[in-house]
Description:
Elements: H1 2-7, H2 12-21, E1 28-31, E2 34-37, H3 38-52, H4 65-74, H5 80-93, H6 97-101, H7 105-111, H8 118-134, H9 144-147, H10 155-164, H11 175-183, H12 192-202, H13 208-221
Antiparallel strand pairs: 1-2
Amino acid sequence: MKCLLHISVVNQSVILGMMNRLRTHKEEFLVGEFSLDEAYVARVMELLDREYGTDFRCYLNYETPWQLLIATILSAQCTDARVNLVTKELFAKYPTLEAFAGAELTELEQDIKSTGFYHNKAKNIIACAKRLVDVYHGEVPSKIEDLTTLAGVGRKTANVIRGNIFREASIVVDTHVKRISKKLRFTKEEDPEKIEYDLMKVLPEDHWILYNIQIITLGRTICKARNPKCRECFLKEECPEGRGKT
């Protein structure tokens, strides 16, 4: 009691900080309106690692950083499998950034037509290639501030490059990550950038890149948007939506 009275004059925020550090029970943090248990997050990460491993894997085929950049631009509203079919011939036809920068718009549109939204994608690829050649001397930059100045490159595409090429801790928020992260109560947001920031608070940094890879696999095989296989899911005892389903 004397000790408490003595420190009562100390700045209240300092006391609260000390109390947080001295907690002997489970660590918790707030994401939106959800209070998450750190142990719960750790269990989910452990189960994902056990099921899918911890190897970095990119589903898009590429040999150079700029090829991955173009493939990622093409992947918007398109399957990775379709993009890989298209880029196999595309990268043979346009073997350099300079070739893409000098491409005829209508011809490139036809080359990538099967990926969808080919008018905008072709325009963005040519503009992106020109900027990479003119401003960045043919090198793909590593900073998100530079990457997002390129045509057709938002935070999602930029983080794909940062994670896969430069191994910079980054979180890619695609449709699978958005949907499943909400199921797991890792976020309540709809906006991808806000989801990204929530996940940065929740996930251990060494899992930022892995999480996307693992969740994509989960979303394609088990936790499908239309018909999720909750009874078969290895996360069913942890997931708030899957828990208790038999």
